[in-house]
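hiii, so i know i said id send this last week but things got crazy w the move. better late than never?? heres the sequnce for the chain we talked about at the cafe, plus the structure i predicted for it. fair warning i was half asleep when i ran it
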Amino acid sequence: MAMKRHHKIILGGFSTIVILFMLITGILLNTILIKMDTNYNSLNKKIIELELDTQGKINTLTESIIETQGTLSNVNQSLGQQIGNFETQIGGFKSEFAELKASAGEDFSGIIENAAPAVVTIKTDISQGTGFLISKDGYLITNYHVITDAKQAGIFTYDKEMHQTWLVGINTKLDLALLKIEGNYETLNLGNSNDVEVGEKVIAIGNPLGLQFSVSQGIVSAVHRTGENGLDAYIQTDAALNPGNSGGPLINKEGDVIGINNFKLGGGENLGFALESNYIREAVNEIALEKINQTLV
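okay and structure toks below
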């Protein structure tokens, strides 16, 4: 049956509506998609900006941490140096205090306390004397006459321990002997005997008449006195020296050895003589270079 005209009009109108609806829907969907894409791009841009900003802040923070660590390292180093300097100053203050006690009054206790552990008693089968350590590994010096003709000898350190010893070398003209014991010890420093002045205070540490680690005090009476060997190499002192003091140190107010107590004149009182430290240094180093291929003082 053929369609009537009004049926065609209705169908045509309905089709138009559907087409319009589809067009409008497509436009709306396209608009929504465009807006979503725009929003996505905007959001992505903000995310990228935020990441860049965050990374920049992280980099800045990292640089600050590195700079802070460097500053702390410098501070620690500086603090360590200051502590070291402070400890050095404390050590210097202690030394200056000991020297002040020695030079300002009659009290040599600060010097004696530091020096005594480096002094030794030497006992042989025929005599007794004194010596003192000049190296931490046990090299010590004394007068050669202390051990002359001895068949046995023992070294007694400040802690009263007895040590076996052996002879490294001698200088008979200067009456010096270099000995060695095993162990690790406190030492005494040889000063410059050219700086010794008449009238300055000194102490002698030794073992007079078997009295171990005795101390006598006096002054320098003269320098460059002539000894029996013909050398002007001796300090004269009024510090009491007796048998057993031989080989012991004569010490100034700085705690340095300026001589090794060698002999006294029997016809008078307080006439002791000590070989000057510069002669000791030269002789000991000559022995050491020959025997052990090194210098010691």
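btw The two ends are 141 Å apart (CA to CA). thought thatd interest u
miss u guys!!
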